[in-house]
Specification:
The protein is mostly helical. Helices cover 61% and strands 5% of the residues. The protein has a two-stranded antiparallel sheet.
């Protein structure tokens, strides 16, 4: 695969994606995190309007904290270290996956709220170390 310019490469996360995804933010081999953020932001705005929520800085961080707590609960259930609450292993696995998606979505919302280019920050904080 040809090497992409840095800016374009930063805008897309590469992965194999099933062909069934046609949401505009994923193609056969890459995810456009910025387009995904726009879509998550739109859904969050609808949610806030529907329930009369002011999505200020406090809401952003507290909602992320809530979602991390739900992910932790699902993880503990998945590991057999918390009550299953009558859920099957498949239901617990589905909940765990959904909570991972919630946490990612709220990270994107938090970054967007604070005008953080998450890809630039990942590049600066993590990817600087990729070459050892």
């Amino acid at each position: 695969m040809p090497r992409m310019p840095r800016r374009h490469a930063a805008a897309c996360l590469h992965r194999r994606a099933p062909a069934r995804y046609g949401s505009g933010w994923v193609s056969a081999d890459r995810v456009d995190i910025r387009a995904l953020t726009v879509q998550v932001e739109q859904v969050s705005q609808v949610y806030a309007t529907r329930f009369g929520i002011e999505r200020d800085s406090n809401w952003q961080i507290l909602k992320l904290h809530e979602e991390v707590g739900e992910l932790t609960q699902a993880h503990l259930m998945r590991q057999g270290q918390a009550r299953s609450k009558g859920h099957s292993a498949a239901e617990i696995e589905a909940t765990f996956r959904a909570e991972v998606a919630d946490v990612l979505s709220h990270i994107l919302l938090l970054a967007h709220h604070h005008d953080i280019d998450i890809l630039d920050e990942v590049e600066r904080k993590w990817l600087v170390w990729r070459d050892g």
